[in-house]
Amino acid sequence: MKLLTHNLLSSHVRGVGPRGFPLRLQATEVRINPVEFNPDFVARMIPKVEWAALLEAADTLHLIEVPKEPIEGYEHDEEFLRKMHHILLEVEVLEGTLQCPESGRLFPISRGIPNMLLSDEETET
Amino acid sequence: MQRLINDDPESWLKAISIWKNLELDAKKEKLSQKDANPLKRKMGENDVIVAKKLETEQMHEIRENKECQLEKQIEAAALEQGHRITKRQEFLEEDLQKDAVGSRTHSDLTFRVSCRCSGAIAKTFTAQEVGRVFGIALMKQFGWKADLRNPNLEVFIHLSDIYSVVGIPMFRVPLASRAYIKTAGLRSTTAWAMACLAEIKAGAFVLDPMCGLGTILLEAAKEWPDVYYVGADVSDSQLLGACDNLKAAGLKDKIELIKASVTELPLPSESVDTIISDIPFGKKFKLGEDIKSILQEMERVLHIGGTAVLLLSEDHCRRLRDHGGTSIPLNCREGHAGEPGSEECLNPEGKTGISDPVSPSFAASNQDSLDRMPPFGSLVPVECYKVSLGKTDAFMCKYKKLHSPGP
């Protein structure tokens, strides 16, 4: 699971609503995957990023050199884009958990795939 | 059948010229080992049109089908492999260099007729009889020689209850076979067509909430690489298969997988730009949730102005129609997105990625199905195509989300 994905996932436990985001990340196995750098693509993803969630997740994974926010003219700042590329796309959480901040419910991550399935009682009616 | 050949030899000759050019193109691509994408794309485009056209029955439709067949092929075919390629290449190039008259009549071709009859017509004629009539007519008209073992040209005829197809096959393997897919789910050409309809833009977030083996995402990612793809499925085995497919295709970095249910998507509302999905149907899939809850959740996560392209069974469509009948679309209240807006969307000539001349019968029957598909909340149907999946038929429906769903 990449951090770009983590940035999108929210908890769907009954009654939680928007407070189900962001999910708290715990990782037991992380891998760094080299991914071809595509500055256009990264630049397009920047506006979609929820920065607070990203910073929290990056912090948990002890990532260094994480920009605190998008800088002015980021579309042309290769250094900035490369850093974001690395954080969003090259860090892969293989094993760990995601926790709903409101309900405490844990969602396991296994072989890089987060399991977000809820049981019947947990789902919203 | 004889009339088909004798009445219009011109279109046959034209067809053969096209075939030869395509063969040459195909060989060149094979020899230079270029990416087969452009050819594939062209064929893929006609895929949708032809699939629609197969509905019509008349013999006079054959010619149209035939021309489409040449650029796209539906049934299995023949392509010589290996050392024969270079020989044929030389032969073809030689042939094309002959004077105008000579190459126009294509009098030096050898051919073979393969025929298949099914349905009611099989009771009147045998395949051999049909084949023989065709073969003799072709020989008389064009002077081609029959060669059953290794013909230059194979003419393929399929007569059934619904359509009559005459075609010249281009390749030995089905068009849908892909080098990069290990285990295919949905037919690749159909998946590709769906991705085409979906108006995928660079930097978009594309979701397939019932991705299965990931066929649709794979096709889309190959064609539109600067996009963020996510696939979700409830089944471990499917996700594992999808993972394998992604690895084999080298697309592991472009497509993310999550284990989630389409009726409870772990995504915030209005966070997805595009949804493309093949909604499972048939007795093999036991769908716990019904089509309405599936669409509801899709509607929730889709951005306003977002597109959803869904492959639905007749059954799904029927249920949606019933649903549409009982609830008045909420967009009536919202003014600008009311009836006039809906009518615009129902215009089949609207924004479509597939720009091909469309015959009047196609537009008419398209309008038909469109009229029968109601809006689902704020999801308004924009285009709808009937697609043959072999044993069954399905509908490829494109929806646009006009505004937020009502309370």
UniProtKB/TrEMBL annotation, chain A:
Q: Which GO terms describe its molecular function?
A: protein heterodimerization activity
Its annotated compartments are: Cytoplasm, Perinuclear region; Nucleus, Nucleoplasm
Q: Which InterPro entries match?
A: Trm112, Trm112-like
Q: Give the keywords, sorted.
A: Cytoplasm, Nucleus
Give the record's family classification: Belongs to the TRM112 family.
PANTHER family in UniProt: MULTIFUNCTIONAL METHYLTRANSFERASE SUBUNIT TRM112-LIKE PROTEIN, UPF0315 PROTEIN-RELATED
Which protein are we looking at?
Multifunctional methyltransferase subunit TRM112-like protein
Name the gene. Answer: TRMT112
UniProtKB/TrEMBL annotation, chain B:
SUPFAM superfamilies per UniProt: S-adenosyl-L-methionine-dependent methyltransferases, THUMP domain-like
Keyword set for this entry?
Methyltransferase, RNA-binding, Transferase
Taxonomically, the superkingdom here is: Eukaryota
User: Methyltransferase: is it a keyword of this entry?
Assistant: yes
The record's Pfam families line, in alphabetical order, gives: UPF0020 (PF01170)
Q: Which Gene3D superfamilies match?
A: 3.30.2130.30, Vaccinia Virus protein VP39
Location of the region described as Disordered in the Swiss-Prot/TrEMBL record? 331-367
Task: Specify whether DNA repair is a keyword of the entry.
Answer: no
Q: Where does the THUMP domain start and stop, copy by copy? A: 67-170
The entry assigns this protein to a family as follows: Belongs to the methyltransferase superfamily.
Protein name per its UniProtKB record: THUMP domain-containing protein 2 isoform X3
